[in-house]
């Protein structure tokens, strides 16, 4: 089969001919119908410091997918061949303390598809049957393939408890834009998004943002103070992964408010601890999705929300380099690849 593989340390990847994997006990073989490129994949492709410390080539990249069960291994009773599925990308151990208390999404022994084991940028992928999610047959494969990042947005917004609140979101990337739609769907009073690209800010308004702020042209903190009479936002979600966004987020949240930290800045970020203390701000770190509670919540939201505008580019798997180039130049939001084309 064809697969996009990180052959060796360094930037780039190769479209390689590799063997179709065989499902072992408890595994399923999925024929990939669509797979989408994530920011993590871009880090691996460009070989940033995180990738250098974590990735051990050779490795098939990719973790967001939709496809059809082709074959099941021994001891698998569900799903069945032919089922239309996606997959939870965090493969939990099931034995540690966190798994035992229902927090498998932060399992200390987790393996991630396309990071710690071969991923989805291929015609076929093998995953444990326990991570498989059955898709609604009416969901197009390209949309089904982005459920994993959509789950990130759902989990973050749920932790923010946005109903009836004024919500400020930093970040006009995929997750920030998704969070606009989720926050509005979950009853936020007002949704404001801070970004850098005017076309993305326009899309944010289409997806549910009441107002947007171009951080190149205006001070987000001053604008929020104006909108709230100097009080600040009830909830701030930092989804840009930028030091300035965290600093401004702490300034923009009201006393007694909540700051959701989701983005991953490239370096450590100093926080104004006295400000945090005297404002009594609650800071909540959020990662991944609750397994499978968030998937259930996301499926219900997908029945009401149209995420297709986020998919700006579609390519056959053989043209994966074009997809990465678009993302690197911030000329795309979500890129979907089609194996077998």
Topology (elements, then pairings):
Layout: E1 2-6, E2 14-17, E3 27-36, H1 39-46, H2 49-54, E4 59-60, E5 64-72, E6 84-87, E7 90-91, H3 97-100, E8 111-112, E9 124-128, E10 132-134, H4 141-144, H5 147-160, E11 166-170, H6 174-185, E12 190-195, H7 198-207, E13 211-214, H8 220-227, E14 233-238, H9 243-252, E15 253-261, H10 273-279, E16 282-285, H11 293-302, E17 311-316, H12 320-328, E18 334-338
Parallel strand pairs: 11-12, 11-14, 12-13, 14-15, 15-16, 17-18
Antiparallel strand pairs: 1-2, 1-4, 3-5, 3-9, 3-18, 5-6, 6-10, 7-8
Helix pairs in contact: 5-6, 5-11, 6-7, 8-9
The CATH architecture of the largest domain: Alpha-Beta Complex
Work out the helicity level. 25-40%
Beta-sheet strand percentage? Answer: 25-35%
Total discrete domains? 2
Structural class: alpha/beta
> How is the quaternary structure best described?
single chain
Which outline best applies? globular
Reading off the top of the CATH hierarchy, the class of the largest domain is best stated as: Alpha Beta
Instruction: Compute the CA-based radius of gyration.
Output: 20 Å
CATH superfamily of the largest domain: Medium-chain alcohol dehydrogenases, catalytic domain
How confident overall, as mean pLDDT? 96
Number of strands: 18
Task: Describe the main β-sheet briefly.
Answer: 7 strands, mixed
pLDDT < 50 stretches: none
| SSE succession | EEEHHEEEEHEEEHHEHEHEHEHEHEHEHE
């Amino acid at each position: 089969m064809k697969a996009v593989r990180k052959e060796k340390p360094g930037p780039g990847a190769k479209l390689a001919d590799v063997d179709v994997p065989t499902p072992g006990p408890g595994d399923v073989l999925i024929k990939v119908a669509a797979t989408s490129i994530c920011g993590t994949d871009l880090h691996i492709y460009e070989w940033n410091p995180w990738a250098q410390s974590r990735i051990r080539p050779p490795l098939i990249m990719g973790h967001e997918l939709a496809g059809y069960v082709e074959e099941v291994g021994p001891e698998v009773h569900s799903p069945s061949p032919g089922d239309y599925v996606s997959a939870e990308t965090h493969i939990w151990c099931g034995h540690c303390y966190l798994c035992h208390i229902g927090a498998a999404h932060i399992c200390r022994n987790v393996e991630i598809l396309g990071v710690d084991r071969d991923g989805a940028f291929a015609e076929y992928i093998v995953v444990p049957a326990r991570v498989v999610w059955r898709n609604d047959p009416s969901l197009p494969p390209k949309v089904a393939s982005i459920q994993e990042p959509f789950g990130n947005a759902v989990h973050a917004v749920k932790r923010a408890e946005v109903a009836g609140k004024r919500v400020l979101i930093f970040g006009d990337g995929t997750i920030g834009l998704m969070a606009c739609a989720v926050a509005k769907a979950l009853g936020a009073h007002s949704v404001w998004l801070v970004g850098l690209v005017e076309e993305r800010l326009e899309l944010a308004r289409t997806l549910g943002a009441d107002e947007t702020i171009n951080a190149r042209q205006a001070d987000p903190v001053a604008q929020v103070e104006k909108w709230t009479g100097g009080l600040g936002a009830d909830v701030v979600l930092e989804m840009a992964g930028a030091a300035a966004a965290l600093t401004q987020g702490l300034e923009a949240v009201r006393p007694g408010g909540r700051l959701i930290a989701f983005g991953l800045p490239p370096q450590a970020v100093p926080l104004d601890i006295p400000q945090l203390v005297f404002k009594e701000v609650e800071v909540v770190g959020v990662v991944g999705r609750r397994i499978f509670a968030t998937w259930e919540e996301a499926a219900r939201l997908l029945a009401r929300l149209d995420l297709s505008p986020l998919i700006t580019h579609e390519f056959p798997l053989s043209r994966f380099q074009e997809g990465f180039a678009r993302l690197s130049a911030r000329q795309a939001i979500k890129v979907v690849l089609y194996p077998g084309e």
